[in-house]
Design brief:
The chain is an alpha+beta fold. The strands form 6 sheets. Strands 1-24-23-22 form a 4-stranded antiparallel sheet, with helices on one face. It has 2 domains: about 5-230, no CATH class; about 230-450 and about 460-505, TolB, C-terminal domain (Neuraminidase). Helix 1 (about 5-20) runs antiparallel to helix 10 (about 200-230), helix 2 (about 25-35) packs antiparallel against helix 6 and helix 7 (about 145-155) runs antiparallel to helix 8 (about 160-180). About 45% of the residues are buried. It is elongated. The longest helix has about 35 residues, at about 40-75. The protein contains 10 helices and 24 strands. A hairpin with a 4-residue loop joins strand 11 and strand 12 (about 325-335).
Length: about 500
């Protein structure tokens, strides 16, 4: 489903493309395609029209999709700030277009005329289409074009950027394709003259752009506000679990707690609570108890000792157990057949197996070894297993939460910790890993970086392993911990020394 930002940006882009019909290049394209350079065959005009439309689409996707990809590559470094700046740019452009201000900066360049005399007409029209679709290689007829470039970059979503590019190309090509075929009959020429002598229509289109940009600014502003601040914070808490409007967590001193949708908090009779599928599970000395989430009435108890993490859904329970030898295992139990538990992973040294998360019969967990870090997905019904995210020694993945095809997780490098949200399974043919993901939160990594040399010794060829915005020395004081994902919120644990709190981030 398209987001509100995608819809308003695409509509605005189509209108911004239409304003380009009043440019010298727009008029010349009508004449070039409509006359077919003297070829009277209708097929020549249609072929030139088709190649022009294709070239325009390519140019639009390259510009706006490329800007969105660049924004995604930068990642979530102050993602909320990018959204806010995008909203400000959209509002400024909306005001300028509404008032019909003179375009500045203006690109006073036309398409090369020699192409149509030295190349086959279909090829020349395709290249002309690319130049017009790129948006910034010829005259710009609305501030909206500049604003859409900023919005694409701020969104950092390559799919949104491609959609904006295609919509802009459609608007850019539509008047040319409408007028060119009738040029020989005189209809196109008459309409072209009427359009050229009626600048009020161009101003009207710019005002439509202004309205669209105002809606885009509202969408971006809402996203930046929700990503910049946590809607709620729970002190002395860790290991959040969310489902059905309820939130459960582990208190630092004591057992688990449960908050209902009404805000009432109940203390639970066990630890490591987990919500899912209308059920609530907790661990105690006697094992894992699965209860009704609404009434807390127990349904069954699974014998298990040393449980350190839990996940539950309507049909499954997955828990992590640790033995006295410091070895961990991940166990899955079907609630329909609890007498046959299945080992998902293990035995592993403590610290390699992350906290599990369940969405129906699909389980995810982080598995970190000396050679690689990965988030693993296991289909509990079929037993099929696949990595969703994977890295070598340059990054670490941790604390995944899965819900309705979306994956919330943490990615840590020597420079930064990021809380990211994206599709669990990347679309086929995605340009790169991580494309289309949102960074909800970013902070300095806790990794300590030295200066790269020993004081008092030569260091001309040695330097620190520095990061943008930070030099050598100790890392950040806060470490990101377990997460939970709900339909409208993301929850993350922030750990500082012996303290921890759960922060909520409202998803825009």
């Amino acid at each position: 489903m398209l987001s509100g930002l995608a819809v308003c940006a695409a509509i605005t882009a189509a209108v911004a493309g239409l304003t380009g019909a009043w440019s010298p290049c727009g008029f010349s394209m009508v004449e070039t395609i409509g006359s077919a350079l003297g070829d009277a065959r209708r097929g020549a005009t249609l072929l030139a029209s088709a190649t022009f439309a294709l070239g325009t689409a390519i140019g639009g996707v390259v510009t706006f999709g490329g800007l969105a990809l660049a924004g995604a590559l930068i990642g979530g470094q102050a993602a909320w700030l990018r959204d806010a700046l995008g909203a400000i740019l959209a509002l400024a452009a909306a005001l300028a277009d509404w008032r019909g201000l003179e375009l500045a900066p203006q690109i006073r360049r036309q398409v090369p005329e020699r192409w149509r005399w030295t190349m086959p007409l279909p090829l020349a029209c395709a290249l002309y289409g690319v130049l017009l679709g790129l948006g910034f290689t010829t005259f710009v007829l609305a501030f909206a074009v500049w604003a859409l470039a900023g919005i694409s970059f701020a969104a950092g979503d390559s799919a949104l950027g491609a959609l904006v590019g295609v919509a802009f190309a459609a608007g850019r090509a539509a008047p040319v394709l409408w007028l060119a075929p009738g040029l020989r009959r005189g209809e196109g020429a008459r309409r072209l003259d009427e359009m050229a002598s009626e600048p009020r229509l161009w101003l009207g289109l710019r005002r439509l752009d202004a309205l669209g940009l105002a809606l885009c600014a509202l969408a971006l502003g809402g996203a930046s506000a929700s990503a910049a601040a946590s809607a709620a914070s729970i002190a002395d808490a860790t290991d959040p679990s969310a489902a059905g409007g309820e939130l459960a967590w582990q208190r630092l001193a004591g057992s688990g707690a449960l908050s209902s949708g009404a805000g009432a908090v109940s203390v639970l009779p066990g630890a490591q609570p987990a919500l899912g599928g209308g059920l609530l599970a907790w661990a105690s000395a006697s094992g894992v108890t699965v209860a009704d989430a609404a009434t807390l009435a127990p349904r069954l108890t699974l014998p298990a000792a040393g449980v350190s993490a839990l996940a539950v859904s309507s049909g499954w329970v997955v828990y992590r157990v640790q033995s006295g030898a410091g070895v961990e295992r991940l166990i899955a139990v079907s609630l329909a057949d609890p007498s046959h538990p299945r080992e998902l992973a293990g035995p592993r040294p403590a610290g390699q197996l992350g906290r599990p998360s369940l969405d129906g019969a699909r389980a995810v967990f982080a598995l970190n070894t000396a050679r690689r870090s990965a988030i693993e997905l296991v289909d509990l019904q079929s037993g099929a297993r696949r990595p969703l995210r994977m890295a070598g020694r340059d990054a670490q993945y941790a604390n995944p939460s899965l819900l309705a095809g979306r994956l919330l997780f943490e990615r840590t490098t020597r420079c930064a910790q990021q809380l990211r949200l994206g599709a669990a399974i990347a679309p086929r043919g995605a340009a790169r890993a991580g494309a289309g993901e949102r960074t909800l939160l970013q902070m300095r990594s806790t990794v300590r970086r030295d200066v790269g040399y020993e004081p008092g010794y030569e260091h001309a060829y040695n330097s620190a392993s520095l990061c943008a915005g930070g030099g050598a020395g100790g890392g950040g004081a806060i470490r990101l911990g377990p997460t939970a994902l709900a339909s409208a919120s993301a929850y993350v644990t922030e750990i500082a020394g012996g303290d921890a709190r759960i922060a909520e981030i409202v998803l825009g």
